[in-house]
Amino acid sequence: MNLAEKLISSHLVSGKMKAGEEIAIKIDQTLTQDSTGTMAYLQFESMGIDKVKTYKSVAYIDHNTLQTGFENADDHAYIQSVALKHGISVSKPGNGICHQVHLERFGIPGMTLLGSDSHTPTCGGLGMLAIGAGGLDVAVAMGGGPLHLTMPKVVKVELTGALRKNVSAKDVILEVLRRLTVKGGVGKIIEYGGEGVKTLSVPERATIANMGAELGATTSVFPSDSVTKAFLKAQGREDVYRPLKADGRAKYAEIVEIDLSALTPLAACPHSPDAVKKVSEIGRIAVDQVCIGSCTNSSYLDMMKVAAILKGKTVNPGVSLTISPGSRQVLSMLASNGALADIVNAGARVLECACGPCIGMGQSPKNNAVSLRTFNRNFYARSGTATAGVYLVSPETAAYSAINGYLTDPTECEPLPEIRMPQKFAVNDNLILRPEDFSDVQVVRGPNIKPFPEHHALADTLSGETLIVLEDHITTDHIMPSNSKLLPYRSNIPYLSDYCLNPSDPTFAARAKEKGGGFIVAGANYGQGSSREHAALVPLYLGIKAVIAQSFARIHRDNLINNGILPLEFSDAADYSKIEQGDVLVIENARAQIAKGSTVTVKNETKGYRFKTTLKLSPRLKNIILAGGVLAAIASGALGE
Asked: Which of 62, 342, 477, 558 is catalytic?
C-alpha cells in the first residue's frame, strides 16, 4: 500500500478503500479555532455528550484576536469554558497559530487529525492523516463518531534533487499549484515521496502540506522518517515517533515528478493561488507592503532566514513590513538568540503570534497597493482592500523585496548562510490549559452568541427564485466574507446574514430575505477556500433550498449537506448558461427523487423547461439530506447512531 492507504486502513471503520466509495475512519485528534469554534461547540453541546471521546482535542484561539469590542473576548471566554468543561485543552491567545502549535506540541505520526480549519493538513508534514472539515463534522468526531468521506485517489509527488540556495519549500507547493490548479486536487490525497523528501525539514514539509488545501485536496502527507524523529526529539516528544512510509511497490492514480534542484523562486499573482509565474518573469514591480507569517510560513526556520536577510539592513522607505511569528515558541527563541532584534532594527513591525493579516484581521494595504505575502490565499478582497494586488511568495522573496522596494528574485541576491534546525526547541506550555487542571467549570455565554439556525426536514416540493447567478471559483470569502469587521460576529448568524455574498452582489442578502429564500446558481468549484461552516449556515438562515453548480469544493459540499442544503450539479453544462437571476425554479417530489437515485429534475417555471442535475449520495447522506441535516438526523435516529 501507499502511505495514505496505510493510514486510512489502520483507522477504517466502514467501507472499502476503493476510490469514489464512501468510507468512515476513526479520528484520534481534533482541533478547532475561534473563527469556526464557537459554532462547533454549540453543535457539540446540542448532542448532550459530557466529555470528548478522542485521544486529544485542542481548542485554539488564534483568529479573532483583534479586540475592538467585547464580541471576540466573549467568544474566547465561551470557547475556553466550554472546552475545559468537556475535556478539551485550550491554547490561549498569544500562544500561536493552531497549525504551527499543533505541529510543535501535539502532532503524532500515524494518527488522524480532524480540524475545523481547511489548513489542518499542515500536520501531514509529520506523517499524520490530517483533514480539514466543517465544524459540525469536528463536533461529531469529538463525540466519538467517525469521519465519513469519499475514498480519495492517491497522487504521488515524486521529489528528486535538493533545493538550491534561496529557493524555498514555498516554491515547491507553488509549482504543484501551477501544474495542478486550485481544483486539481479535488477528490485526491497528495502523497510526497522520493529521495528529495529527505532534504526537507519538518517545517518545510508542513509548508507544502499546508497549501495542499489550495489544490482542493482532501489532504497531503509526507513519510515519517529520521527527519521527523529529529524534529520530535527537539520538541521533547521523541516518544511519539514512529516510522511510516509507502511500500516499495505501492500504486498511485497519478505521479507528478518535480526536480527540486530545477526550481526557481515563484509567485502566485492576483487573485488566485494557482496564477503562478516565475519571480524573474514578473519583473521588478514596485512593492508597497510585505507581510511575513501565517500558518504557511511562520516557523522558526522561516523566521531565522528572514532575520538573516534583514540583519544590518533597513526596510525600503516605501515598504511596510510586518512579521507574525507562528507560535510563542518561535517568538521566544527569536528573542533569546538576538534574531528578533535584527528584525526590529531593520524596521519590521512585529505582530502577535496569530493569523492576523492572512485572514484580513488588520494590516489592510493602501488602495492599489502591491502586497507580497507569505500566506496561502490571495483571493479578491481577502486582504481587506479590494483594489490591492496580493502576491504569494516565499519568506526569502518577501524579505529581499522588502529591503529593495521591488519584487526581487532571491537567487540573484547573496546566498543565505545555512540555517539549521535547533537540536532543542524552547518548550513552554504554560499558555495551554489542560482540562484535568480544572473542575466545576461553568460555561460563559456572552450576548453576541446566538443559536445556530434550525434544521427542518426536506420538503416534498422546493420552489423559489434564482436569487443570483455566479461565475466559476466562488470562494467561501465571497459567500461569507471574513474580515476584521465581521469576524467578531462569527457566533451571530442573524447579523452575518446581511453580508452573505456581499463581494459578488451587495443586494443579495436583502433580496433573499424579501423573497423568503430561493436558489443559488454557480459555475465550477463553488465554495473553494476556507472550511468555514458559516458559508452554509448563513444561506440556511436565509432560506436557501439548494445550490446548483457546475461542481463543488469538497469541504463546502460537505457543509451544505450537513446543514440540509442540496448541492446539485448540472448534468449538462449547457444548462448553466440558460438560467437567469429571477427565474423561478421548482423541484417536485424532491424527497422521492433523492431517495430513488442520483438524478434530480428541476423545472425552470419562468422559461418553461426542465433540466437534470446530479446528486450522488450514499444511503447515509440521503438520510441526512432528507432529515434536514446531521443534527436533525441524529435527533430523529435517521442515522441509527
From this structure: 62
The β-bridge partners of 432 are: 91
Annotated catalytic residue 530: yes
pLDDT at 640 over 80: no
Q: Exposed, middle or buried: residue 476 (CB in 10 Å: 0-12, 13-18, 19+)?
A: buried
Whether 10 is a known active-site residue: answer: no
Instruction: Give the pLDDT band of residue 638 (cuts 50, 70, 90).
Output: confident
Distance between CA atoms of residues 134 and 118, nearest Å: 8
Q: Which residues, 6 or more positions from 93, have their beta carbon under 8 angstroms from its beta carbon?
A: 61, 62, 65, 76, 352, 354
Q: Which of 478, 532, 534, 554 is catalytic?
A: 532
Q: Which residues pair with 433 in a beta bridge?
A: 90
Point out the catalytic residue in the list 327, 530, 531, 551: 530
Give pLDDT, residue 637: 83
Q: Which pLDDT score is estimated for 289? A: 98
Residues 130 and 217: beta-carbon distance below 8 Å: no
Cβ atoms of 490 and 442 within 8 Å: the answer is: no
| H or E element at residue 280 | helix 279-282
> DSSP letter string over 426-438?
----TTEE-GGG-
pLDDT higher than 80, residue 340: yes
φ/ψ of 541, rounded to 5, equals: -60, -35
Could you tell me how far CA 578 lies from the centroid of its own chain? Answer: 33
pLDDT at 176: 98
Q: Residues 11, 63, 205, 455: which is the catalytic one?
A: 63
Which residues partner with 129 through β-bridges?
112
Nearest to 51 by CA among 436, 444, 451: 436
Taking the CA atoms of residue 17, residue 21, residue 25 and residue 29 in that order, the dihedral angle to the nearest 10 degrees is: 110
* Per-residue model confidence as pLDDT tens digits over 440-489: 999 999 999 988 888 899 999 999 999 999 999 999 999 999 888 888 89
Secondary structure (3-state) at 166: coil
Supply 227's cell numbers. 527527519
Residue 377 appears among annotated catalytic residues: yes
Q: At what angle do helices 98-105 and 202-210 cross, to 10 degrees?
A: 140
Tell me the pTM.
0.94
Residues whose CB falls within 8 Å of the CB of residue 367, separated by 6 or more in sequence, listed in order: 385, 387, 388
pLDDT higher than threshold 60 for residue 501: yes
Of 76, 328, 377, 490, the catalytic one is: 377
Would residue 62 show up in a list of annotated catalytic residues for this protein?
A: yes
Maximum CA pair distance of the chain? 72
Of 34, 117, 137, 342, the catalytic one is 117
User: Torsion angle, CA of 498/70/91/329, rounded to 10 degrees?
Assistant: 100
Written as one string, the DSSP assignment of 483-523 is: STTTGGGTT-HHHHGGGTTTTT-TTHHHHHHHHT-EEEEE-
Residue 443: per-residue pLDDT: 96
